[in-house]
């Protein structure tokens, strides 16, 4: 409701808009904090896209937050799409941000790592990346 006097115009509707400002801020903070709930890769070994001289014993991916062991997976496939890891993918018991899997000795070639993790707050992220064992063309 608005009223008018000759010197000042007061519009109560603008007051109503400002009163919803804290609700808007809370909504933005909640949305932002939900986005922070996802676990994203921080770094890996072997690194994304790198060529390594010899077969690594493991593939390890560190995330920016703790991940749920029961819902997190990792696998390594060769250029033909065949799974080559030892199928013992796990979240490291001492470091809940580390997803790892053991590898047999790999032949020279191109490989791809597929991972899927669930953060502690139940948000899922997934992805893949390549690496190469030297000697491949």
UniProtKB/TrEMBL annotation:
GO biological process entries: copper ion transport; response to copper ion
Tagged with keyword Isomerase: no
Domain CopC: 38-133
Keyword Metal-binding listed: yes
Keywords recorded for this protein, A-Z: Copper, Metal-binding, Signal
TM annotation in the entry: none
UniProt GO cellular component terms: cell envelope; periplasmic space; plasma membrane
Localisation per UniProt entry: Cell envelope
Top-level lineage group: Bacteria
Primary location recorded for the protein, binned into one broad class: other
UniProt protein name: Copper resistance protein CopC
Source organism of this protein record: Candidatus Methylomirabilis tolerans
């Amino acid at each position: 409701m608005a009223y008018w006097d000759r010197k000042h115009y007061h519009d109560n509707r603008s007051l109503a808009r400002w009163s919803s400002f804290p609700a808007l801020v809370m909504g933005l903070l909640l949305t932002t904090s939900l986005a922070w709930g996802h676990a994203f890769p921080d770094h890996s070994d072997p690194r994304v896209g790198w060529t390594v001289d010899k077969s690594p014993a493991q593939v390890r991916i560190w995330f920016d937050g703790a991940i749920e062991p029961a819902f997190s997976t990792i696998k390594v496939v060769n250029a033909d799409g065949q799974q080559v890891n030892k199928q013992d993918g796990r979240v490291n018991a001492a470091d809940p941000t580390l997803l790892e899997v053991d590898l047999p000795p790999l032949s020279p070639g191109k490989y791809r790592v597929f991972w899927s993790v669930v953060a502690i707050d139940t948000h899922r992220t997934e992805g893949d990346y390549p690496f190469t064992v030297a000697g491949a063309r």
